[in-house]
Design a protein that fits this description.
heterodimer, A: alpha+beta, Ubiquitin-like (UB roll), Alpha-Beta Plaits, 2 domains, 5-stranded mixed β-sheet, B: alpha/beta, Glutaredoxin, 5 domains, 12% strand, binds flavin mononucleotide, binds iron/sulfur cluster
């Protein structure tokens, strides 16, 4: 069933496999489409909406939409860049993000996107929610102030029996991501580290470990987010 | 308690996908879902506890704490407020000595708010232990509370005679009224069940689909997708199993026509599901009904049983070899978004009602990832009439683009609220005349519920139809004396905030920000720029996954468009900037937190 198809991204003709999502096809063609809730190898759930593109004129999320032959995709338009910027700003005002005191600073995808988009201050008023930090689990800290509710941890972290360690709780603006009290206690070191790595922000932190890589030498301190993908262009084309 | 839970889990064969039913039964038996129950359910279904809890905490009618021997859910919809909810609410609080969200110290009664319960034509209304109490007054509330204190069973608390039609039947016994005010082909009381089944079994499934296509009927659930095409897509996909869902979630505030069909013509709905099943090759139907209509459960189950006895359901239906189809009822548990077709399916699979990413659409991958047709109650009922009388006949009603008839749920400031079946193409002016509203006293009409549009008199000549004002059928009339921004727009916006599933960043955050802006304007702190901001920021919502988020700014955007003067009157003329920060309120808050006495 898997066949080669041609798609058009912002006027550039791209080759893709019919079993790929737009985001994957774009990446292979050296085109960066910003994402937050997407994580390689984990079933996509178009939650953050930041990868919104226009497919044949219609707004769709690139992480959940499979490519098809002849698709015309708009990516870097003024409208979409403004939308993505506003989503980053929305996430910033929704929680409490004090970067200077955050262990994830420099490795945080939200922060990196804010830099990439040149956000100085959000256009929206801060919501300053009152949120808790859950430090009751032996291996991890779950800081609700920083959670952007992207569900990456929910989708990626299960115990050996396939049971979810993390889950949503409630709905609407009251939704939060919580840790199972029993499974949270049994979390192995590897799984705790994986959870921290999966989290795009500093909401899941492994306990008793901090600032191993100094600030200034972290992933996005060196290169803007997405530049790894965009640099492929030069070598590949 | 352990025994009860074990029994409940066994009743649903320890099937994780029946979690909704397990939780509904547990909630009903124990009045809440205690910690021990969650542990046991998690254990038996091989899930983690947080996983069970994420489903529980999604639905309004599930609770981690006892909700009282009598759980009172008072509707807080726009029309309830217009019809005197405030006095009713305060009387409940006074008589019970508790506030909303609380349970009396002795555990006797709990008092809660709830979104529109589908009784807009008989508000204010409340649900008490699954029974609906309509047309409440402070006087009536006092009677009810007296009865509660005496420990009367809920069914003995009614004072009025039962409602009209089947509402009074032995298996319903409810005070809800149908208020059917105009009938047409769908609401025809002389409908004879089984005729359409007899007819289709002599046809090929493709011929059934052809007839539906010929009628040009489009979905009545709001999105207006051509029904024949939907069935054809599903028919053409090869799969081991296919499903038909009847969407009776009816959560759009102001809609109640599906409730009336469920009460008066349930056999028509079931026949519609059988017809759809035959057409697409499905063997199982699921009738998904919102929790608010649980009082119809025994009645509907009985009708299903009778249909099985008559061989309208089951094996070799109507004597046709190999034509097997049966229906089960799935109740929701309080979540408007579950009306969205893919959320409906998620919910029926026992999960949170979060819409799926589409594509793939349910016709390709629906219930258990199998091809699934989701249709509204009214769509399926109309399909039966199309089969009986032909697509050409059906097209003789309505307009070219909107064929057939439409059931309207009309409420608000008019003399005769209720359900009306009219031909598509009916104008708003005609509608107002029909329901006994005096045109000159009408300020606005909300067409299509909160996700639709708020229009003023200059647009009352517009017509109802997919080509002009598309609607799932909810029409709410507001008189001149109503405060549109506070009573309508703010209420609708709060509704969307409460009902968002919370998984899209846009839908989870933007409406709250817009509501704060709106409140700022209502508190006389707004400036002209705030109107522009709302217009601009509202557009972000279009990037949301489902229709809820995409339309969540409609109350604000459509009122800015059509009633801009209401906003302009309220913003400050002499200022271009106001942070909206209220120093006094902030001082009060901080004093409260630090236990100091404010000096203001
Ligand atoms: C938030 C939301 C709520 C909805 N609620 C309902 C509903 O209560 N009943 C319904 O039939 N359709 C509802 N829909 C539309 C369904 O997704 C779907 O389009 C419909 O059930 C298809 O049936 P139809 O083609 O017969 O209209 C809703 C959609 C959204 C986005
Ligand atoms: S904890 Fe991290 S990974 Fe999990 S939902 Fe929150 S932000 Fe996403
Ligand atoms: S738009 Fe809102 S309700 Fe719909 S899926 Fe997104 S968050 Fe959920």
């Amino acid at each position: 069933m898997n066949k080669v198809v041609k798609i058009d991204i912002d006027g550039l003709e791209c080759i893709a496999n019919s079993d790929q999502y737009i985001i994957e096809a774009a990446r292979e063609n050296g085109i960066y489409i910003p994402t937050l809730c997407n994580y390689p190898g984990v079933k996509p759930k178009g939650g953050c909406r930041i990868c919104t593109v226009r497919v044949n004129g219609k707004q769709m999320t690139a992480c959940t939409t499979p490519v098809s032959d002849g698709m015309r995709i708009e990516n870097n338009t003024e409208e979409l860049i403004n939308l993505r910027k506003s989503i980053v700003e929305l996430l910033l005002v929704e929680g409490n993000h004090f970067c200077p005191s955050c262990e994830k600073s420099g490795n945080c995808e939200l922060q990196a996107l804010a830099y990439r988009f040149g956000i100085m201050a959000p256009r929206f008023p801060y919501l300053f929610p009152v949120r808790k930090v859950d430090a009751s689990h032996p291996k991890i800290i779950k800081d609700q102030n920083r959670c952007i509710l992207c569900k990456r941890c929910i989708r990626a972290i299960t115990d050996e029996k396939g049971r979810s360690v993390f889950a949503y709780r409630r709905r609407s603006s009251r939704v939060e991501v919580v840790v199972d009290s029993k499974l949270g206690k049994q979390l192995t070191d590897e799984l705790a580290q994986k959870a921290m790595d999966v989290c795009p922000v500093g909401s899941i932190l492994v306990k008793e470990k901090g600032f191993i890589t100094p600030i200034g030498e972290r992933k996005y301190d060196k290169n803007p987010i997405g530049s790894d993908i965009e640099n492929i262009t030069i070598t590949k084309r | 308690m352990k025994n009860t839970i074990t029994k409940t889990i066994a009743k649903y064969h320890k099937d994780k996908t029946r979690l909704m039913d397990i939780l509904i039964d547990t909630q009903e038996e124990l009045g809440y879902i205690p910690k021990e129950a969650i542990s046991q359910i998690a254990e038996d279904l091989h899930m983690s506890e947080v996983d069970v809890e994420q489903t529980i905490s999604f639905y309004h009618f599930f609770s981690f704490q006892p909700t009282g021997k009598y759980s009172i859910y008072l509707n807080n919809s726009v029309v309830a407020v217009m019809m005197g909810r405030k006095e009713v609410a305060s009387t409940f609080e006074q008589e019970l000595g508790i506030k909303f969200g609380q349970v009396t110290a002795d555990g006797l009664a709990g008092l809660f708010e709830t979104s529109c319960i589908g009784m807009n034509d008989q508000e204010p209304a409340a649900i008490i232990n699954n029974m609906v109490f309509t047309r409440l007054t402070p006087f009536r509330v006092k009677e009810i509370v007296r009865d509660i204190k005496e420990g009367k069973p809920v069914v003995d608390m009614f004072r009025a005679s039962f409602g009209d039609g089947k509402n009074a039947s032995e298996l319903i016994r409810s005070v809800v009224s149908n208020n059917i005010r105009k009938i047409g082909p769908v609401l025809d009381p002389f409908y004879k069940p089984g005729e359409a089944i007899k007819k289709i079994i002599k046809m090929k499934p493709e011929e059934v689909i052809e007839e539906i296509k010929r009628s040009s009927i489009r979905g009545r659930g709001g999105a207006g997708f051509p029904t024949g095409l939907k069935w054809e897509f599903c028919r053409k996909i090869e799969a081991d199993k296919k499903y038909i869902f009847c969407n009776a979630d009816e959560g759009e505030p102001g809609t109640f026509k599906d409730r009336v069909i469920l009460t008066e013509l349930p056999r028509l709905i079931m026949e519609g599901m059988v017809v759809a099943g035959y057409a697409v090759g499905a063997t199982e139907g699921i009738l998904y009904i919102r929790f608010e209509y649980k009082y119809l459960e025994r009645y509907l189950e009985n009708i299903l049983q009778k249909a099985r006895e008559k061989n309208y359901l089951g094996k070799d239906i109507g004597g046709k070899k190999g034509f097997n189809f049966d229906i089960r009822i799935q109740f929701g548990a309080g979540a408007y978004v579950c009306g969205e077709e893919s959320a409906l399916i998620e919910s029926a699979e026992g999960k949170r009602g979060e819409p799926r990413d589409r594509p793939p659409f349910p016709v390709r991958r629906g219930y258990f990832d199998m091809p699934t047709v989701v249709n509204n109650v009214e769509t399926l009922c109309s399909a039966v009439k199309v089969i009986l009388n032909g697509g050409e006949w059906y097209k003789s009603f309505g307009t070219t683009e909107s064929t057939g008839t439409k059931l309207l749920s009309i409420s608000g400031d008019c003399r005769f609220p209720g359900v009306y079946e009219v031909d598509w193409g009916f104008s708003i002016n005609d509608m107002l005349e029909m329901v006994g509203a005096v045109n000159s006293e009408v300020q606005a009409v909300q067409v299509g519920g909160p996700s639709g549009a708020l229009i003023g008199p200059n647009e009352f000549n517009r017509i109802l139809g997919y080509e002009d004002l598309a609607t799932g059928g909810s029409l709410i009339i507001f008189g001149k004396h109503r405060d549109l921004l506070t009573d309508v727009v703010l209420n609708f916006t709060e509704f969307f905030i409460e009902e968002s599933c919370g998984s899209c960043s846009t839908c989870r955050i933007v409406p709250t920000i817009l509501m704060k802006k709106l409140k700022k304007i209502l508190n006389a702190r707004g400036v002209a720029q705030d109107i522009e901001d709302m217009t601009e920021w509202g557009k972000i919502l279009r990037a949301s996954r489902c229709g809820l988020g995409q339309t969540a700014a409609n109350p604000i955007l459509s009122s800015i468009k059509n009633f801009r003067h209401l906003y302009e009157e309220k913003v400050q003329k002499n200022k271009t900037f106001d942070s909206g920060f209220d120093l006094n309120a902030a001082v009060l808050e901080s004093c409260e937190a630090t236990n100091r006495i404010p000096n203001i």
